[in-house]
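Human: Here is a favour to ask of a fellow structure person. Comparing notes only helps if you start from a blank page. Give me a protein, with the fold worked out from its sequence. Please set it down just below, with no commentary around it:

Assistant:
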Amino acid sequence: MGWPKGGSFEFSRRIAKKFTNLGGELNQSSKVEKIIVEDNKAVGIVLADGSEHRAAIVVSAADGHETIYEMLEGKYTSETIDKYYQVYGEEQEFGLQVFLGLNRDLSDEPHAVSLLLDEPVRLELKDRYSLYLELFDSNSGVAPEGKSVIKVVTKGNYGYWKRLREEDLEKYRSEKEAVYNKVLKILERRFPGIKEQVEVHDITTPATVERYTLNFHGWQPWPVPDGGVMTIMKGISKTLPGLQNFYMVGQWATTMIGIPNAALTGRNLVKKLCKKDKKKFKTQV
């Protein structure tokens, strides 16, 4: 359960470089507003700037709810798909995260630490009895030599933070800072002197994730209700009923979390399309 050196951004850049080196064209900062459908066939996309881009095959690796109910206007669903997106919780593990950039070398510490608290910390109007920490030193590639990053995660409630942000942005920001100060106080007991060593900090909530990624409620996929192994293997929305030339890949296509799973769904789709076009599927290392 390690992390790629340099973090997820560098990991993404390597994939993007490979894609473009193979002749692919990558357009960033290009939000897709709509998937164009003609005669129940996906034939392209419309971007936020109004431009249209036609294609023989349309593949979405985006958020499932955004893809199915916004880009496709909810016209191609099933009872199973609808039921899945209607059954979700308001609270998610790892939904609230605090990041601290430190002028301190933590290379002698473990990569992960579970803090069981003698006294609960009050977050989101609820008592939390533990905090989970991930530590990154300079060897991780995400911190300079002699410095480190601590990531603190706990449960996060979408409704709580969404209401705060919409009703009073300043209160939302001050509440995030209050979370940081509470967490910092706890960390000071585990890492004495840390208060004076923090050079930068940031707090993300489910509302933050929603704003940056458009993920439904800032969530990652949740388990399929009453879903067995076959449902997971087959995937809940790799294709959509009644829609041709369209595929979904990524976590939402299978409702399974994790980068390896997301990558595998893309690979398997390309293999499937090669077979359909009677082309040999081969990879390069």
